[in-house]
């Protein structure tokens, strides 16, 4: 076996260690950037926002640096689910009234989040100079977090499709209901057929009776995705149809906080642990927030 320490000493003596030039520093910066994850659904009412919030809390509890970004332009409600009153959103950053760091708020257990997607649509009317300033400000966040979770809107609206296209990956939330399954596949199909640069998709089945039902739902979507899209859509896991979830929603408290030992909370813990084990590693292709916004503005979807 090669003595790695001896090899390192030999490289130092021969002055053959890589030099810290500008290119290496840039590459190193890229390796520290957050992974940008769009969480979406084919239709509304499947519990997507609740899933996003509780996944973020479980990743946060596991020691990961996580930011939740409410990117639903029509029905932003992450703050409502936490019972937190939001005074500022991205809109105030675009108007030059606040910096991005000023609008980050904190939910249960100190979870950072950006409330309300209102204001993002104004990006389409900004000048190139204003966009550059905005994206540079946002890009600093990429070096401060491991994961940034975008809670997108539901369905196939233009804004949702562009958010997904700009992300590093997409988690699609569905339920066992036939319409939810159909709409989830429709979302995956449209994105796969129109993305110039494919991104990984995965699936979570919410409100499942048990693991077997979730696997049956996953198999239905996976089969047609493989046959017609030549795409694999792995199942990240399922969240049980647990009455504690709705009780927590009514109390405006995340169910993993209010009922940490309930079945749904244990499901979320398994999903978070599995995701951290199986998630694609951060690479030099990870684009950062600036790349995300620039791709979102390309209007290619």
UniProtKB/TrEMBL annotation:
Domain AAA: from-to ranges: 35-191
Pfam families assigned: AAA_31
Matching Gene3D superfamilies: P-loop containing nucleotide triphosphate hydrolases
InterPro entries in the cross-refs: AAA_dom, FlhG, MinD_FleN, P-loop_NTPase, ParA/MinD_ATPase
Domain of life: Bacteria
Keyword NAD: no
Regions that span the bilayer: none
Entry keywords, A to Z: ATP-binding, Nucleotide-binding
Protein name per its UniProtKB record: MinD/ParA family protein
Organism taxonomic ancestry: Bacteria, Bacillati, Bacillota, Bacilli, Bacillales
